[in-house]
């Protein structure tokens, strides 16, 4: 198999998605296969699902995997919408032992951000500038890039807004919008409260919105009043998969494993 065709996997609370990615162009070489996330999503159960994906693709190279968690040198430091037993677990070890392949793990929003910076809306800032990516899905994920370098594990959904008793991602997210049947203008007003605060603290040049709510950007953009320019991500569905593959390719080249 060609060295720049890499398996990228995106582990989420409801689906585990993956496929082969051309890391030079950002294009999918295969379809993105989707398996339901096992419940409970324990390390052993997720590893078995990842094995199915690897088998389906008959893949043998390095693998990148995005996780809804803080990921430090392969180890999960939190667990959002997956089983708590992931906390403290070495993701790369569990998946590596299961499949016999070399795994590289990172936070899911970091993976989406990498794809967006390399092939999407962030590309003009890939050499210079500060870009904040916010993924709006079940929770709120974040990725911060300074002159193209990622500052990993920015848990931007876990901050508290003024007069709020819950963290930001419990105040507004795409899940909350759906669960409460919120109109897009109400979503826009609430999300603006959040985004204005984040903008005032981090002062990026550009804010890119990803995740499920990104494709409806036109419905709520007029409510967003930040200093930074706000744009939607283009690759929203495949971004996590593509970014995970790019990460694995880069890390694999660096470590030479
Ligand atoms: C988690 C982040 C994750 C985001 C998107 C949040 O609940 O804290 O680690 O990136 O959800 O899945």
Quickly list its features:
257 residues; alpha/beta; Nucleotidyltransferase, domain 5; five-stranded mixed beta sheet
Helices and strands in order, then pairings?
Layout: E1 5-11, E2 15-22, E3 33-36, H1 43-57, E4 63-67, E5 71-72, E6 75-76, H2 91-99, E7 103-107, H3 108-119, E8 130-136, E9 140-146, E10 149-151, H4 168-171, H5 174-179, H6 184-202, E11 206-210, H7 217-220, E12 229-232, H8 239-255
Parallel strand pairs: 1-4, 4-7, 8-11, 11-12
Antiparallel strand pairs: 1-2, 2-3, 5-6, 8-9, 9-10
Helix pairs in contact: 1-2, 3-8
The structure holds beta-D-glucopyranose.
Beta-D-glucopyranose binds at residues 68-70, 78, 80, 107-109, 135, 137, 139, 141, 155, 157-158, 169.
Question: Gyration radius, to the nearest Å?
Answer: 18 Å
Give a short account of the largest sheet.
5 strands, mixed
- The global form is globular
Bound molecules: beta-D-glucopyranose
Strand order of the largest sheet: 3-2-1-4-7
Strand proportion:
15-25%
Average predicted confidence as pLDDT? 96
The strand count comes to 12
Overall description:
The protein is an alpha/beta fold. It has 2 domains: 5-110 and 238-255, Nucleotidyltransferase, domain 5 (2-Layer Sandwich); 121-233, Nucleotidyltransferase, domain 5. Helix content is 33%, strand content 23%. The chain has 8 helices and 12 strands. The strands form 3 sheets. It has a 5-stranded mixed beta sheet with strand order 3-2-1-4-7. The chain has a 5-stranded mixed beta sheet with strand order 10-9-8-11-12, covered by helices on one side. The chain has a two-stranded antiparallel ribbon with strand order 5-6. β8 and β9 form a beta hairpin. α1 (43-57) packs across α2 and α3 (108-119) crosses α8 (239-255). The longest helix has 19 residues, at 184-202. The radius of gyration is 18 Å and the shape is globular. Bound molecules: beta-D-glucopyranose. The site of beta-D-glucopyranose (BGC) has 16 residues, from α3. Beta-D-glucopyranose binds at residues 68-70, 78, 80, 107-109, 135, 137, 139, 141, 155, 157-158, 169.
């Amino acid at each position: 198999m060609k060295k720049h065709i890499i398996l990228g996997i995106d582990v989420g609370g409801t689906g585990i998605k993956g496929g082969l990615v051309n890391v030079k162009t950002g294009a999918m070489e295969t379809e993105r296969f989707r398996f339901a996330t096992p419940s409970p999503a324990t390390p052993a159960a997720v590893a078995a699902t990842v094995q199915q994906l690897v088998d389906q693709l008959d893949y043998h190279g390095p693998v990148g995997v995005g996780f809804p968690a803080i990921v430090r040198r392969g180890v999960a430091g939190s667990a959002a919408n997956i089983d708590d037993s992931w906390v403290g677990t070495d993701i790369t070890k569990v998946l590596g032992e299961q499949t016999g392949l070399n795994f590289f793990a990172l936070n899911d929003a970091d993976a989406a951000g990498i794809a967006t910076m390399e092939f999407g809306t962030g590309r003009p800032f890939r050499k210079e500038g500060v870009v904040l990516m916010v993924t709006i899905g079940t929770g709120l994920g974040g990725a911060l890039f300074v002159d193209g370098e990622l500052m990993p594990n920015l848990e931007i959904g876990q901050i508290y807004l003024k007069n709020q008793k819950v963290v930001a991602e419990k105040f507004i997210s795409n899940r909350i919008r759906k669960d409460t049947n919120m109109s897009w203008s109400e979503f826009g007003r609430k999300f603006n409260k959040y985004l204005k605060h984040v903008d005032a603290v981090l002062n990026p040049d550009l804010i890119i919105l990803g995740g499920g709510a990104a494709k409806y950007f036109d419905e709520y953009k007029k409510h967003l009043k930040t200093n930074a320019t706000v744009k939607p991500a283009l690759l929203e569905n495949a971004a996590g998969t593509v970014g995970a593959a790019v990460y694995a390719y880069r890390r694999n080249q660096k470590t030479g494993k």
